[in-house]
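Example record used in the benchmark description.
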Amino acid sequence: MRFKQTILLIVILIISTNISQAESFGINLYGLSFHSGVEGYNYDRLNEVNKGIGVRADFGKKDGDAIFMEAGKYNDSFENEAKYVSVGYQYRIWKQLRFGINAAFYNTKSTNNGETFFAPIPIMSYRVWRVTVNTVYLPKYQRINPFTIVGAYLTFTIIQGK
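Model output (structure tokens):
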């Protein structure tokens, strides 16, 4: 199945999910990125303001562990359009601080020769009222990712469950 069809399918599944079963449904606004380990590359200027939009549905209590689904697109570090769909799990560490893993399928011209690839991405989130700050860690990995990236984006909860 092509990546665009997969994203469309995931978005339809997220939207068609009975919202009463989801703890929350939100809009992701991407984001910022910081790159390390770029020495030796001819990358004079990396895009560290990664504009984009996505959707997120959380299943679980807002003050507990959560399973979530996300889909989105943004401008990556080389200003190419990046798209992803994912399912993740986050464990509540303290109050509204959660840490977990985001199992995602990504596609961008910038990495892996433009081929869709799977990546387990660590994610840490802190929620205040209806705004969640998400931080992800993308390690350097062979041909897929040439350097380490720490990214951040916001989730604005637009529908809150019971």
